[in-house]
Amino acid sequence: MEVQVDGATLYVEVDGSESSPALLLWHPGRCTLRSWDHLVPLLAEHFHVVRIDVRGIGQSSPSEDPAQYILEQYAEDACVVLDHLGIERCHVWSQSGGTRQAFAFCALSPDRVITAALYAANTDPADMAQQQAGSKIAAQERRKLGIEKPPRPPEGFFEHKDAEAAVLATQANGKFDLAAVIDKLTIPVLIGTGSHDPNLVSSRVIAATAPNAKLVVLENVGHNSMWEYPALALQTFLDFHESLETG
What we know:
Number of domains: 1
Number of strands: 8
Strand order of the largest sheet: 1-2-4-3-5-6-7-8
Number of helices: 8
Strand content: 15-25%
């Protein structure tokens, strides 16, 4: 479906029963909502799953005003989509660059969030070279252990209506001081970060600072667990929610 927001038209997909708890997924960086295709069928067994291509990404339109490529706007856009779907509050799961956007959403709209799973969380500038190097080492370790090779990224995960807009949309991640709002993450938060991800340094700080956060180090994983080791990423997410239910 398409949802009109201030200055853009957002492409949205919804899966799972409306009677299930709502789960808002944030796609990694410049990737599209297609990034979650391999996990959504399993998530939809437990959740009412909502995915949004943020403005300028994927099938969403570019922003009419370039000044709207900011995380404050993305958070507001998410609230408009939730309102459109009649969802008052939701769980959140994000990965990599999308975690910066989800982080801001949780901090700016705490009344809309129940829990958050922020994977590869980082408040510092991204070191893409080290992220790629870490993922390469992790892949070698998984091969040695005989862990099943991950699936190829879903088709369309990097296809955009407007390639220039996609670049601008991603640059929004560097325009928000996430370190200044860590203390606003008062909801239950899971920080899931790979053992070979350079973001682990910052993830430890976030987990130690946020009032109700826990860190799970994803062994034999680099920067992008949802693709590198999806079975572990998903099981860690589901275990987090089960632990909250059982108290």
